[in-house]
Amino acid sequence: MTTYTARPIAPEVLKELRTADDAGRTPSPVTDDEGGAPLRCCLRHSEPGERIALVSYAPLRRWAARTGAEPGPYDEQGPVFVHAEECAGPQGEGLAFTNAHRVLRRYSADGHILGGRLVQEGFGDEELAEAFDDPSVALVHVRAVEYGCFYYEVRRA
Questions:
Q1: Under a CB-based contact definition with an 8 Å cutoff, are residues 86 and 42 in contact?
Q2: One-letter-per-residue 3-state SS of 68-131
Q3: Among 45, 80, 85, which residue's Cα sits nearest to residue 59?
Q4: Smallest Cα–Cα separation from 104: which of 136, 64, 67, 145?
Q5: Is the CB of residue 113 less than 8 Å from the CB of residue 104?
Q6: How far apart are CA 78 and CA 62, in angstroms?
């Protein structure tokens, strides 16, 4: 059985984003008084009192730079929450933010969108197996339904 790996934003990328995000802006960290922000650095929700930053992130652009893909107009950037300072990263393995409807957006090795699927709360390996059923799928982005925001990347393990 194929398993899948949820990939948070890599620590070396986070270091860059905390200096200047993918839109070229300097982040403005804040204290999260309420908690609950979906942190893409450690794949959990923020706790009240944690220092976080909302930064612009271009996940496909960064992936394409590493792989030589040419995503063309599919290159996009959007807002993501991260810890304002270095964090320990994910504390467990497996999928995160499965507590609501999400979109699984599939991409080819050249960085083009191959389609997407709305999945229900509690999605898991079955839905990912379907997303990766097409051998031309290189990676899948888990995204918010409401705003289309990137949560994390999934690859075959």
A1: no
A2: CCCCHHHCCCEEEEEECCCCCCCCCCCCCCCCCCEEEEEEECCCCEEEEEEECCCCCHHHHHHH
A3: 80
A4: 145
A5: no
A6: 13
CA–CA gap between residue 138 and residue 99 (Å, rounded): 25
Q: Can you name the residues that pair with 111 across neighbouring β-strands?
A: none
Q: What is the pLDDT of residues 128-138, one digit of tens each?
A: 999 999 999 99
Total-model pTM:
0.93
Residue among 8, 15, 12, 4 at smallest CA distance from 97: 8
**Is residue 52 within 8 Å of 29, Cβ to Cβ?**
yes
Class of residue 108 by CB neighbours under 10 A (exposed 0-12, middle 13-18, buried 19+): middle
pLDDT-derived band at 2, boundaries 50, 70, 90: low
Integer CA distances (angstroms), 71 to 3, 22, 117, in order: 26, 16, 20
